[in-house]
Amino acid sequence: MQAVRTRPEQRAAEAAVVVEATPHGSARSWSPEAEIGMRVEDIWDSLDVQQRQLSHGDKLNSCFDSIPVASFPHTFDGAQLVEIPSDATLAEAVDILSRNRIISAPVRNVDAPEDASWIDRYIGIVEFAGIAVWLLHQSEAAAKADDVGADELAAKLGTVTFEGAAAAAAAVASKVTADAESEGDIAEVFGALPSSDLFNKTKVKDISGSFRWAPFLALQSSDTFLTMLLLLSKYRMKSLPVVDIGEGTISNIITQAAVVHMLSECVGLHWFEEWGTKTLSEIGLPIMRLSKIVKVREDEPALKAFRLMRRKGVGGIPVVDDGGRAVGSIMIKDVKHLLTASETNRDYRTLTAKKFIANARQSSGERQMSIITCSRGDSIKDIILKLDAEKRQRIYVINEKGNLDGLITLRDIIAKLVYEPPGYFGDFFNGVIPLPSNSRV
Most buried of 224, 324, 377, 402, CB within 10 angstroms? Predict the structure, then answer.
């Protein structure tokens, strides 16, 4: 466990830049995320002096409401943002994502006028998994309507190969995706996507509102961390673009995973330790109890997991045995394994969740689709460090018998950091909310 530094020690540590043995003798300093934590610490200390009567929650709200989102580390590192035109076909969208080695991108409304504001210029964010699940759902519906057998359906599958998404994706896509893909995971190839006509003729704008298609709700550079944290937690946004109002373009994208990484870099600071050393029970986690967790049994079809994810609007489902013990986890991004052109997954409609996980582990390594767990006695800091280290977005709470007892997501953690003051957002959602009735955030 990292020790909590006193204020003088903290400043001394900042000044003592460590020179590494590099060809240029370059110096290592605090990470950008840790520097944000230091800014919070400065504000925290000033509030200690000026307003001692403030509660811990009030102080954190004041700290985060004093820092603009423009301070958040940039995803693109000077690279140009990749956009997908709304009139692109799904095949063209996938080609754009693959060539640029990213797994999601904002969709630009081609019908918007040149001087359109960002509200009219963008209609959402589309991703690999969303396209794959939509196509899978359409093929299932068509097969049911036509009473097509599994073998005949498999024979109709296309063989579109998705190139790219390789090692370079770790530098960009891992920051962009809210699923926090592990390094090399998105290097796997999609194959055998169903319904080539749908794939080649359906426009990106036509699937707006389908699974996990988020509304395009953006932040301005002058908005604060508090606004960003509330939108990612209470308002269930998966990721938040930051727009340059003058240019009407996107300058950054902030995800839940990026925020949790920032928190992990703040371990040792007073404001973090006062909050982070509390146990899950003390802080009111898990919010989602066992009865509310969407799950599948290991002997049920893996396809059911993806159907449930689409129907319930969730990004992952635990797989349990007959005794209720978690034996694995299937995430929405794992749809690529279901659609891979391989003998083991050919009859994908009857493939069990247990066999699906076994096949994925055999081809991708033992850690594939593993489940990470914790207990109610663990601290929030323990959970943050584990989620960040494992590049995951959810962790399951188990009891003393090893059975599932709850679920904690990145959103839940952020929600316990700050709260929404009465009337805080005002008319912020004008033009964006209410969401389309068929949207999935």
Answer: 224
Confidence grade of residue 77 (pLDDT, cut at 50, 70, 90): low
- DSSP E strands in 153-292: the ranges are 219-220, 239-244, 249-255, 288-289
Nearest alpha-carbon partner for 377 in 393, 403, 402, 397: 397
Q: Any residues with CB less than 8 A from the CB of 185 and at least 6 apart, and which?
A: 333, 364
Of 249, 229, 423, the C-alpha closest to 240 is: 229
Instruction: List phi, psi (to 5°) of 84.
Output: -115, 125
CB 332 within 8 A of CB 185: no
Answer whether 0.85 is exceeded by the pTM: no
Let me know: does 441 contact 238? Beta carbons within 8 Å: yes
DSSP state of 210: S
Query: Beta partners for 331?
Result: 316
Q: How far apart are the first and last CA of the chain?
A: 36
Residue 78 backbone zone (phi > 0: left; psi -120 to 50: alpha; other: beta): left
Residues across the chain: 441
| b/e sequence 38-69, b meaning 16+ C-beta within 10 Å | eebbebbeebeeeeeeeeeeebbbbbbbbbbb
Rounded to whole angstroms, the Cα distance separating 12 from 21 reads: 22
Banded model confidence at residue 189, pLDDT cuts 50, 70, 90:
very low
Q: Please state, in angstroms and rounded to a whole number, the distance separating the CA atoms of residues 90 and 97.
A: 11
- Owner of token pair 């396209």: 131
E-strand ranges in 304-364 read 316-320, 326-331
Q: Are 323 and 295 in contact (CB under 8 A)?
A: no
Cα within 13 Å of Cα(213), Cβ side: 23
Identity (one letter) of the amino acid at 309? M
3-state secondary structure of 18: strand
- Judge whether residue 295 has pLDDT over 90: yes
